[in-house]
UniProtKB/TrEMBL annotation:
Residues 220-237 have a biased composition (Low complexity). Pfam families: PIN_8. It comes from the Bacteria. Residues 1-33, 212-237 are annotated as: Disordered. This is PIN like domain-containing protein. Residues 60-223 form the PIN like domain. Residues 1-12 have a biased composition (Polar residues).
Amino acid sequence: MQKSSPEASPSGPTEEGTEDHEAEGTTSARSFAYEERFPDAQSAFGLDLSPPDAAASSTLVFLDTSALLLLYDATEAAARAALDAFGRLREDTRLIVPGHAAREYAVVRSHKITDLYDDLSRQVRPPALPKRAGAFSNRALVESLGHADRLNELRQQIAALTEAYQHEARTLMGELEAWAGDDFISEAYSALFEGEAVQDLDATVRDVTAEVQRRDDISRPPATSTAARTRTPLGTC
């Protein structure tokens, strides 16, 4: 009987599958990443798993660009409530805005104002008013049924209300043109984010990317799906 060649029946683990399922008896490289999280291995058995409510009063809060811009899409009441919350955090010196977020906010905020201005400009274009009763086909029938006068009356009301709406919109557009960062949100931010509230990160994009990966490594739950070996580990971002 001819012996099978090594190529025909590989004895070792194939390259496929080694990424998600390591050979038994080996130590995962990820386990070494947990040493940073638990320098003292014994401390892993004394974790405090209570709700994080208590820690909420002492944690630092970092606002990214999306958080800074979120207030512009909220109601005025919600925006002012958020500013009040930011103010309390600032008093406790627990509010920080990264420098790159502040710069991006300054650029994108102008786009927000421009979008509003463009939206208003579309509202002040000449409107398509309803037809006069005399412009309908079969005018005699419209007049004979007694609706012509009422249609014309409503058309005049619509025209008057449209003119008033457009006047108000143009007034608002004029105020937007005169803005120089003095809307109530920008003014509040200017007062809140003084001194050390804005901090530049001493890191490059590569550094930040590596840090995100590191944090993902040390926080991913040590479990995998039992349904299929090739599935992504549970907890993967």
